[in-house]
Amino acid sequence: MKITYYGHASLGIEVGAKHIIVDPFITGNPLANAIDINILKADYILLTHAHYDHVLDVEEIAKNTDAVIVSNPEITTYYEKKGFKSHFMNHGGSWKFDFGTLRYVSAAHSSSFPDGTYGGNPGGFLIETQSKNIYIAGDTALTYDMKLIPLRTKLDLAILPIGNNFTMDVQDAIVASDFVECNKIMGYHYDSNPYIEINHEESIVKFLDKGKRIASFGGR
Ligand code: NI
Ligand code: MN
Prior knowledge:
The protein is an alpha/beta fold. It has helices spanning 52-55, 58-65, 73-80, 149-152, 170-179, 200-209; strands at 2-5, 11-15, 18-22, 44-46, 68-71, 86-88, 94-97, 100-106, 123-128, 133-136, 157-161, 184-188, 213-216. It has one domain: Metallo-beta-lactamase, Chain A.
């Protein structure tokens, strides 16, 4: 499994020959302007929720790649009406895809499209593959529901929001990593707008003080 950070909450994940893109918001992020979305490969586009900063580049990438959009039914219906392919899931459910097993899990946040259309309940994703298991929290507060994840899945990486204001901050992400029982963390959803700018050095120290390892801290 190879994970590429495209900034904000956008991720590229390669599992074998399959390409997954999560929450594409690249053209709207000045810190990610070196990335050309027209050359991105995608078999699947996973969407945690419908907010602008998670769906901005979905249609362009789906048009280019014919990718299947995976999310909750409110979000997939929105894209199906526009002619895109989709697979809908709901909270607690899992499905075996050709890259591994995907589970849609709870997140405490909100979800509406930029045009006001209701975007269903927001979520996160658990991806289980033959090589690695990862948790993508999505935009969320720290919740006790995170404790349910390690009951079934031994994680190799937890991807957690750390920018504060809209989501958890670093301190809550440290607790979240305890809840999901994974000390290898990739922080995301920070720095890409003035409300979520964080001090990198201080944040790294906070994680290290608790024996946590930051897998990626690039700052896009
Ligand atoms: Ni959001
Ligand atoms: Mn967001």
